[in-house]
Design goal:
It contains 10 helices and 13 strands.
Length: 338
Amino acid sequence: MKKFLAVFLTATVGLVMAGCNQAPAATTAAATTAAPAATTAAPAGDKLIKVGIINNDPNESGYRTANDKDMKATFTKENGYEAQFAYSLKNDEQIAAAKKFITDEVDYLLLSAADTSGWDSVLQDAKTAGVKVILFDRTIDADQSLYEASIVSDMRKEGDTAVAWLESQKLPEYKIIHIQGAMGTAAQKGRSGAMDDKAKEKGWKIVKQQTAEWNAEKAQQIVQSVIDSGEKFNVIYAENDDMAKGAVAALDKANISHGVGGDVIVMGYDCNAWALKELLAKKWNYDGQCNPFQASYIDKIIKDFSAGKAPEQKTIIMDEKGFDATTITQEDVDKYGI
């Protein structure tokens, strides 16, 4: 049984870029898109640090592919780690994986939760076993004493930034197809919540609100169903780039113009390089950044623990921004595209 070290993290980090989500009730700090360089190797003579990494399916989206690639590039034997990976879009399967990693006596459990709830029991088991838990990408509804640190995006702020941009377009009327991500995820809750609140406040009409579970084909079907119904709409608010892409496929099939100067405003999230190119070509209107590069921050926290040094803060909020098709540049595409 490993000895558990209770650490209270309090310092703050300076803001370098632009920020995101309703931060958890703990000391927070903004992190730049460019993550700190990972330590290149474990100290001489040290054994490998065992980590169990629970993530969503890498094929879920371009964001997730980049996130998984970043984790695999960091948690290597060359960098002092013995890493095991588990993937699922289902909370119960992730919880089962967490229990196995605890049984395997990993030193750290790194978690990007499929759902925000249901984690208290297994995280308490981890704490009892002396396994330190670090959250990445997504927050959970659990007592902060059950994890050591959280490196996340501010999904609510991402949503607030996007809907504020949409409001600034001053359309004569707002008739919106709202394509949601996988229900219950932090990204869905934050991005949907922002749209729900703004639509209620401003009297915007939500023509259709339905989950496509991050999937392009399902998003295309949703938009096609609205087109077939004859219902009028002028905004597509998709909670990731892949779903925006699927929505646009339905528009193209129906010869409905979109983008700058078109009949339909298209909005996505994640800043895949191909999506930002759609903005640059003015075929889309807006894309919200979601920073996938958390691995080197986690690496630094773990190496600090190994050296007997407490991390500087409990929660790091990844710094993010939104892009408008009328102002985006090739430099933006090159710098922020994932």
